[in-house]
Design a protein that fits this description.
By secondary structure, this protein is an alpha/beta fold. It contains 16 helices and 21 strands. The structure holds ligand SFD and adenosine monophosphate (AMP).
Amino acid sequence: MTDFETVVVETDVLILGGGMAACGAAVETAHWAKKLGLKVALVDKAAMDRSGAVAMGLSAINQYVGLKDGENTMEDYVGYVRNDLMGVTREDLVANIARHVDSSVHLFEKWGLPIWKDKDGGYVHEGRWQLMINGESYKVIVAEAAKNAMGIDNIYERVFITGPLMDGERCAGAVGFSVRENKFYVFKAKATLAAMGGAVGVFKPRSSGEGAGRAWYPPFNSGASAYFTLEAGAEMTCQEVRFIPVRFKDAYGPVGAWFLLFKSRATNALGEAYMQTRASELEKWLPYGKVKPVPANLRNWLMMLDVMEGKGPIYMRTEEAIGKIAAEFKDDPKAFKKKMKELENEAWEDFLDMTISQALLWAATNTQPEERSSEIAAAEPYFIGSHSGASGAWVSGPKDIAPDGYFWGYDNMTTIKGLFAAGDASGASSHKFSSGSHAEGRIAGKAMCKFASENKDACNYDDGEIAKIKEIALRPMVVYEENVGKTTQADVNPHYILPKMFMMRLQKMMDEYAGGVTAQFTTSEKNLEKCLELLAMLREDSEKLGAKDLHDLMRCWESYHRMFQAEAHVRTILFREETRWPGYYFRSDKPSMDKDWECFVNCTYTAKTGEWELKKVPIKHVF
Ligand code: SFD
Ligand code: AMP
């Protein structure tokens, strides 16, 4: 590809991604880099103002601890996360984020994010840990602060990162290409942060036809963090912990405000509330079946049992919840009318702030939430370590809290020297959400500056190796160009596979064998082994991916990344011989929880040999 210019960028600290964690890293790094005389660069495949999971905005900040006001303690938060993940969590990482998250929230407010206030000027809580916001412009506000701190010349937007640049066992930067012009980028750095979000599109979505791009998780995040850290040789954790959000059906509107703020019930089509009628099922999953709140996967599971018994569809009883709140004002017609209007506004804003398509679906189906219930359903699986999932890289904890063996020099550094991870990219520290991801980015940013200033020795770069990497990165364009004339129809060609076809093939095998929607989130050893066999063939065919333009080239790499997330997931579910998170996935051949498996499962991939290594890692408690 002689017409692709190679652009080399030399920096000390490199931030990959432009989402919540990357924006947090940007503000913190800019501060320390100035003091230490370091250069910083940030790379986002999209435009930071509207990139990542917060692109559309959000209606709540889901992690606020209220430490200073004495509302909660760090330990309270760790307990909440540990219970929600059925015991499997890195308490040191969760605590580290919990003690820094409030200051990220205060910064957001200072930068202009409207947080709801009560009559005494306090924050309006959605639930114990969640704050209500007018968040349509949340990402724009957070990105503006990051851009101002970094300086626009140090930001590379619309550059897609394909993979790491290594100096032996050390991460020495990253490579990628512009999605707008024929440029191949080589970023050379001492410290690199993987903050490119989680993964969507690994499993077949419920949506089909023209709606196929619609999913809960943003279509822009396609497993780049997982691939990057795996390919670099970093130890990964919790790769089996996918997230299945229950959402308003078909447009994936959020349920948090309904359950927590409006105190709504969800019932089956017969009007039975599965959280009550199925309560005895929780006894099978002790001790976590009895904690409050009931873990997210178990809430899902009780609902799924109703669906499997043919008691669906499942409904969010919006009209009942609104009616109950307004009933307090029933003796004063004017106040009642005002309250109803207020609740109606809040219901619509919840969707308009973060999932506009759900508001459109309500409008299109003549749904008025104060009059009629809406259907909810379990979505297809996603990989999002920052929400109620946990998959990501195994990173160093903070020196002052981390138990023996959980700290190796720099906060949030992976097991690979010079490679850091935060947000969806770091594992076993669930429930950090937007605010905690920002805080974790700040923690990582500070540690990267420390690393870069203490490891000044130059990395070695082999130009021949870089030329080879460039050739591989751009190969799909060559494959397409050389073969497109061999058939009359460009999308069917024996010499190449288009990225969309490749993605659908991946999604189908994951859906059917690894416990997607079609398989009712159920899988087993034999199904997983079959899936691995098919994944190996898909991997062989990935050399034949074809791209007609830069956009397609990005699509090729997105699905190549997804394929690695898929394999890490399948191998880890297979290794863990139990069902720990029913409602996320169910192993029909190992249908119960086993105390011997109350541990992490970590995996490592060796790029040179293509080998995977899996192991049990004990959970060490801090509290
Ligand atoms: O309630 C490359 N989340 C919510 N958090 C909240 O605090 N409140 C809510 O209301 C939330 N809701 C919610 C949430 C997520 C989603 C998907 C929905 C609704 C629909 C969670 C947060 O959004 C999430 O925790 C954080 O955003 C995680 O931060 P981070 O930085 O790990 O990921 P990101 O923000 O998505 O950013 C990823 C960036 O990477 C870029 N990128 N760049 C270069 N090369 C590549 N190859 C790249 N691949 C990706 C992206 O462009 C982006 O900049 S609620 O409904 O659950
Ligand atoms: P969601 O919209 O489902 O992402 O939820 C937003 C926040 O509310 C997250 O912190 C969830 O864990 C929490 N949440 C949602 N539903 C419930 C529920 N029924 N009980 C307790 N917490 C919930």
